[in-house]
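Entry type: protein chain
Record version: 2
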Amino acid sequence: MIEQYAQRSKVLNTTDGWDDQLSAEENRLVNMLSSDDVALRRDAAKVIVRNAKTDEKVFVAVASTLKKMSEEFRSDSLSVDVMAWLCKALAASGDSRYLEDLEFVRNNTQNVKLRTYAEKAIKSIK
């Protein structure tokens, strides 16, 4: 647990490459989304869903992470759950520019849960 906490702390506290136009919390969210730790990605997506007042650049990072995970699809329950939360986060943006990313997920997955969340997100934006 200590090693996992140290890894998470490193990602959360890294300020290299921060965007000056984003708040500290938004920069942390982008770092979390870019992390190799899928649980950290899920935590970021949950924060974004619950706080829709997030900068557009964070939603761009969400879309990029979702597309990457879709292309490297893993069917384990954690990865599917993370991708479902990322779909919800894009829906929270309300921005139609993310429809293409959500449609990509919906059309390219065999996972029923993920397809359902992508479809709900698409309907939410339309």
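Comment: The chain has a mean pLDDT of 91.
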